[in-house]
Design a protein that fits this description.
Two copies of one chain form a homodimer. By secondary structure, chain A is α/β, with parallel strands linked by helices. Chain A has two domains: 255 residues, Metallo-beta-lactamase, Chain A; 41 residues, no CATH class. Chain A is built from eleven helices and 18 strands. In chain A, helix 3 crosses helix 4. At the A-B interface, helix 1, helix 3 and helix 4 of A face helix 1, helix 3 and helix 4 of B.
Chain lengths: 304, 304
């Protein structure tokens, strides 16, 4: 199967610490790399990773708090210095372009590539990106300002052809695409060979969702149902539940509740408050309810 | 003597690498901390250092290229989150305020402290900061856009009182400030005790200059004459002298020439091009001409 990986570049919250960078991650599906959020220092984190700058063509910004977007202007500028010419697509609240365009006009004159801003409405659940193999949907979040998560889904895949059967029935190459799509095969003497004798099941379609920054949103459970991997913010421990509610963030236990109720296969928690010098307190609280939880950390790669 | 230290937070050039951050440093004189330049990631570097965020009240920006100022908005925002209330003074080309104010208006609403922008004219040599013990002067540089270096100088210091002599002549406390300033003392029977019997020489006044980004500027030698420490950019090795001239940067050897001709006591080179995986090539070239040269590196502290 193609790679489907989530690379964590930063999983801290508003205040930077020596342990955590501001929010950013890269979702790699095959050779495509999609960046989610771009806090200050993202380009440095990207440099430290084994990801190629030039493979990033799409950036999704969840919301316009600095710890999720202050790294954009530096990365845009660096892409230019590196001689990029492929267009860069940025999906964000319309205000982003208004804020970043004047900076680009001043700092990035003669950028050798085009930036295409795609306005998104964080309050709506909508497909905002689609290609032949995947879709990306927004998931409205509840934060102090408009904010959305992102759901990456592989489209249904084609069935696997069984090579021996192609030879046995001497099936011509031009029919094979149809057989991958589920066609039966009719031999020259009129015998119908059902598709399930010619093919094996398609690989499952995998899915990943990023939910940060937000209060728990049980109304998103229908979209998160049985997804492979969920990154959910867990800014606070349960002892700071009041603070979490006040600041429109979630506790680790609340993240676990969402994971449990949506029957996701695995949960990663992140966006840790700078007050925790050991994030295991958050991990322990989440695992109590949802054992298949892991901590995000800078440099981590989670494969599906 | 009071501390006089230069803390390197970043000494790379436009492209970030895994070894070098964008330009920033802190000049610490006693309890005062002055930041020079603030590239992306400066607040993270500051976190890793042992410097206190709250002691930084003055930031000097050499020029408006991104690798010297993209870290400002994040740091301004973080200072706010940390509850700062002391005013922050930023000395920069007037365009900086025009670019950063809209970002502050959007991202840093209700900042709990005031930011005072001080416009500087990088083309003029001028004293732009003065307090009771130090001055900061601009040093015009030659770069692709207006750019200036900064010269930090301690003012002449008071002489040291010799305690035993104060007792011997029974000199009243209220006269001691005058004696530190050089006054003689007249005893009750009219005898004049010359100041040099009552005091020891004052500590020398120390000085530090930051010159980056720039072509060599021999016309600044008069200001750099015999200063204690010079940080000079050395973006390129001598083999890239043509490239240095084209991009308005200096080679390591050119930095050494300035240091030698200005008779500075010690040279630090920095602002290294990302092409060098071992900066010692630059150090060797500079030391050939000016042996008392050291490489800047992230986390380094140079004491005067």
């Amino acid at each position: 199967m193609e790679k489907f990986e989530v690379h964590i570049l930063g999983c801290g919250s508003a205040l930077p610490t020596t342990r955590h960078n501001a929010s950013s991650q890269v979702v790699r599906i095959g050779n495509k790399q999609f960046m989610i959020d771009c806090g200050e220092g993202t380009q440095l984190q990207l440099r430290k990773s084994h990801l190629h700058f030039s493979f990033i063509n799409h950036i999704f910004i969840s919301h316009l708090h600095g710890d999720h977007c202050f790294g954009l202007i530096g990365m845009i500028s660096t892409f230019g210095l590196l001689g990029r010419n492929a267009p860069l697509h940025i999906y964000a609240h319309p205000m982003l372009q208004k804020i970043i365009q004047p900076q680009m006009d001043f700092f990035c004159k003669e950028l050798p590539y085009h930036i295409e801003f795609h306005n998104i409405d964080p309050t709506q659940h909508k497909t905002i990106y689609e290609d032949k193999s995947i879709t990306v949907e927004t998931l409205p979040q509840k934060h102090r300002i408009p904010c959305c998560g992102f759901l990456f889904k592989e489209k249904p895949k084609k069935r696997h052809i069984i090579g021996e059967m192609m030879e046995y029935y001497n099936i011509p190459t031009y029919l094979r695409q149809g057989i991958k799509d589920g066609d039966d095969f009719t031999t020259t003497d009129g015998q119908i060979i059902p598709n399930d004798r010619l093919t094996r099941n398609a690989d499952p379609s995998r899915s990943y969702a990023y939910c940060s920054d937000t209060l728990p949103c049980p109304e998103n459970k229908i979209y998160l149902n049985e997804i492979n991997l969920l990154y959910h913010e867990a800014t606070f421990a349960e002892s700071e539940k009041g603070r979490a509610a006040e600041t429109y963030h979630s506790t680790a236990l609340q993240a676990a509740e969402i994971a449990l109720e949506a029957k996701v296969h695995k949960l990663i928690i992140g966006h840790f408050s700078s007050r925790y010098t050991d994030d295991n307190i958050l991990l322990d609280e989440a695992k109590e309810l949802f054992p298949n939880t892991e901590l995000a950390y800078e440099g981590a790669t989670f494969s599906i």
